[in-house]
Amino acid sequence: MTTDTVTPMMAQYLEIKAEHADALLFYRMGDFYELFFDDAAAAAEALDIALTKRGKHMGEDIAMCGVPVHSAEGYLLTLIRKGFRVAVCEQLENPAEAKKRGSKSVVKRGVVRLVTPGTLTEESLLEARRHNYLAAIAEVRGAHALAWADISTGALHVLPLPPSRIGPELARLAPSEVLVADGADTDMHGLVSDIGASLTPIGRAAFDSTGAAKRLCALFEVQTLDAFGTFDRAEIAAMGAVVEYLEITQKGNLPLLQPPQRENLAGVMQIDAATRRNLELTQALSGGRAGSLLAVMDRTVTAGGARLLERRLSSPSRDLDVIRNRQSMIAFVVEQSRFRTDLRHDLRKVPDLDRALSRLALDRGGPRDLAAVRNGLEGAEDIAARMGNMELPEALTILTQDLTGHDALLDLLDQALIAEPPLLVRDGGFIAEGYDADLDDARQLRDEGRGVIARMQSEYSQTAGISSLKIKHNNVLGYFVEVTATHADKMLSAPLNETFKHRQTTANQVRFTTVALSEMETRILNAGGRALDIEKRLYDRLKSAILERAAQLTQTARALSQLDLTTALADLAVEANWCQPQVDASRAMNIIGGRHPVVEQALRAQGAGPFVANDCNLGDVSDIWLLTGPNMAGKSTFLRQNALIALLAQMGSFVPARSAHIGVVSQLFSRVGASDDLARGRSTFMVEMVETAAILNQADAGALVILDEIGRGTATYDGLSIAWATLEHLHEVNGCRALFATHYHELTNLTDKLARVDNATVAVKEHQGDVIFLHEVRKGAADRSYGVQVAKLAGLPTSVIERARVVLDALERGEREGGSARDALIDDLPLFSSRPAPAPQTARAPSNVEEALKSVLPDELSPRDALALIYELKAKLPASETH
């Protein structure tokens, strides 16, 4: 394109781009996706690929870049992670069809899919062990709801909730994309950005509850949604927005969504975003999975089991029946060592059924997804057979029933597919030999065309009685029968002339054809295409057979995931010596020998010795422990480990302790660590106060609260007063269970005033001015914080440490003698001396050399004796001083 004239192809591009202005347009041209104009400049920079040009438009060069179709997924992932949306524009016909309309006709093209963070399905674009949620937030007449779907697994959930719970629930789900109505308030933008999700405003019509109800009924082919539960208008609007967005992005090719499941806030332990971050449930504070509780616990061997683990860890249950059922399955598997090992071996061979089903439903699957279903069903049958010979708990028996019942489908797939199919349908070769006679014939012609022609030549030679008869081929005549001129009369006479039709005579040969040979020629020439067409038809048939049983297959996938998680948690319990907790409706929190699972594993990996276990007893005599002691003694670890033990108990897991009795925790709050939020103008202290305020305003009597060093970010007396008032509020107003760590020793006197508060401290031992951390939590109060000793361990210069001791002694003496005496002492301290105070002289024991010299009389030594004495004294010096 060398002029300003807009070519038909570019006109087509501009028309399609105008309909998808907010997305990069991947415009299919042969084996490449091409991008033009601003799209090309943005994509070239994001992907670090060459930016070129193609002709001109309105006097300016048209920027262009492209990526190969066969490797486009990797580029798509990069663009999505960098915040782009991509419209994939495919050729909807082949060039030959376009030419029928005229030599200059443009191949029809259209956008077949919008690729966004929440609508990914490709295996290479997703994390196998994590969900990829698309969420929508709806508000109808003051009522709010949150709906979310994972189109890669078909999950669809909805939750009615107050506005204050939107942030915590988004933190729990960690969706990759959140839909809101156009014009959503800025607070919503902040909530979404906090979890690192992509915010997508869509038209308010998508959230219309009346239209949403119609969309949902059409999707699930029902007259009313009542069969799935009772949903209010906000819930229907949120689910409808999800479905509308999927229709837009998938261009009407909707995923295989499961019927909606309505969740209830009262059904799970409530955990806010700050608590999830502080406790490092699924992500470490440093970023990434390593160092999180999830990473320590994940021993699952299937992708579905790993996703289920993250769901349960993020949403501990408050339903005692659910908790006890999960525990009963783990307890059974713990006792069955050989069964556990064999079951985990079987589960390792099970593929990801959920995502294979989803790709097939969206028509993005391939032969390997068919094989994944087959292999998954085979694995399920083997596991069911293994479990069928055992006396199982009721919960495991129910799971076993969901593993079977697919005999006809399994037989069909087993007969139809080869063991290791190719990735793509267009590659062919995935249907087993002997399954379809027409396919076998086409393959034989494709692969053995010469042999077929040779057999026909032998037959014709016998029929004609001419041993020199040959079947040959050229580009003009195709396949033909050739004899020498001496046999021409015989071939042209009856009865052979009825079979062999004359085509051509040359100087020495005569050439003929037959109806069968012409047909065979057509079949041979088209055999490859015909074989592929047959395989495509068979693929569609097999895919339909699978999707007809999608609901039952989903149940099987769910059962396999639960078995995987059960055996993984049992394996962890056995190896790490975790116990089965007692969980009930009491207020107890009696933990004997509790340990922090992440810290314990880190110590084990470092060979740093065993973790010091500690007890915690709340809810019987005291609801609150006021924990004092020095930094680095383990206060924060103790706080976190008890919160994690309660969380693990309610997700149905065993826990890291010798024994544990946990009364159901309704809410879990944690205010631990220091961080700022400069983007919102919040200092470290402001963040601390905001999080503390959220706890005091929301915690109910069933909550468990852990607070560490409240008030430390401001002046001493300000901080002390805030900590004092916070502790009183937890005791008098919230009435919850709490662990409250502080350096304000003045608070320990509150145990005389607040009946349900007990003092506890982390024990230390002093030795020659140094502090030794015992990491033992005991009843009682610490008398000081040992801050100077900890500073010494941290490596502060000796002069600083000694100066700090002088100042500390003065301050403490002044505190004992009263305010005015203290002020006078401070005035006497040269706090701003131009030179650092000299290190104090400390007495030391005489050395070996000094001891030896005490008895020496120099006047009585001869020169020889003096030399001998020097050698003797040198020998007494330490090795480091002899060089």
From TrEMBL:
<dbReference type="GO" id="GO:0003684">
    <property type="term" value="F:damaged DNA binding"/>
</dbReference>
<feature type="binding site">
    <location>
        <begin position="629"/>
        <end position="636"/>
    </location>
    <ligand>
        <name>ATP</name>
    </ligand>
</feature>
<dbReference type="InterPro" id="IPR027417">
    <property type="entry name" value="P-loop_NTPase"/>
</dbReference>
<dbReference type="InterPro" id="IPR007696">
    <property type="entry name" value="DNA_mismatch_repair_MutS_core"/>
</dbReference>
<dbReference type="InterPro" id="IPR000432">
    <property type="entry name" value="DNA_mismatch_repair_MutS_C"/>
</dbReference>
<dbReference type="InterPro" id="IPR036678">
    <property type="entry name" value="MutS_con_dom_sf"/>
</dbReference>
<dbReference type="Pfam" id="PF00488">
    <property type="entry name" value="MutS_V"/>
</dbReference>
<dbReference type="GO" id="GO:0005524">
    <property type="term" value="F:ATP binding"/>
</dbReference>
<dbReference type="Pfam" id="PF05188">
    <property type="entry name" value="MutS_II"/>
</dbReference>
<keyword id="KW-0238">DNA-binding</keyword>
<protein>
    <recommendedName>
        <fullName>DNA mismatch repair protein MutS</fullName>
    </recommendedName>
</protein>
<keyword id="KW-0227">DNA damage</keyword>
<dbReference type="GO" id="GO:0030983">
    <property type="term" value="F:mismatched DNA binding"/>
</dbReference>
<dbReference type="InterPro" id="IPR045076">
    <property type="entry name" value="MutS"/>
</dbReference>
<dbReference type="InterPro" id="IPR007695">
    <property type="entry name" value="DNA_mismatch_repair_MutS-lik_N"/>
</dbReference>
<feature type="domain" description="DNA mismatch repair proteins mutS family">
    <location>
        <begin position="703"/>
        <end position="719"/>
    </location>
</feature>
<keyword id="KW-0067">ATP-binding</keyword>
<dbReference type="InterPro" id="IPR007861">
    <property type="entry name" value="DNA_mismatch_repair_MutS_clamp"/>
</dbReference>
<dbReference type="GO" id="GO:0140664">
    <property type="term" value="F:ATP-dependent DNA damage sensor activity"/>
</dbReference>
<dbReference type="Pfam" id="PF05192">
    <property type="entry name" value="MutS_III"/>
</dbReference>
<dbReference type="InterPro" id="IPR005748">
    <property type="entry name" value="DNA_mismatch_repair_MutS"/>
</dbReference>
<dbReference type="InterPro" id="IPR016151">
    <property type="entry name" value="DNA_mismatch_repair_MutS_N"/>
</dbReference>
<dbReference type="Pfam" id="PF01624">
    <property type="entry name" value="MutS_I"/>
</dbReference>
<dbReference type="InterPro" id="IPR036187">
    <property type="entry name" value="DNA_mismatch_repair_MutS_sf"/>
</dbReference>
<keyword id="KW-0234">DNA repair</keyword>
<comment type="function">
    <text>This protein is involved in the repair of mismatches in DNA. It is possible that it carries out the mismatch recognition step. This protein has a weak ATPase activity.</text>
</comment>
<comment type="similarity">
    <text>Belongs to the DNA mismatch repair MutS family.</text>
</comment>
<dbReference type="Pfam" id="PF05190">
    <property type="entry name" value="MutS_IV"/>
</dbReference>
<dbReference type="InterPro" id="IPR007860">
    <property type="entry name" value="DNA_mmatch_repair_MutS_con_dom"/>
</dbReference>
<dbReference type="InterPro" id="IPR017261">
    <property type="entry name" value="DNA_mismatch_repair_MutS/MSH"/>
</dbReference>
<keyword id="KW-0547">Nucleotide-binding</keyword>
<dbReference type="GO" id="GO:0006298">
    <property type="term" value="P:mismatch repair"/>
</dbReference>
<dbReference type="GO" id="GO:0005829">
    <property type="term" value="C:cytosol"/>
</dbReference>
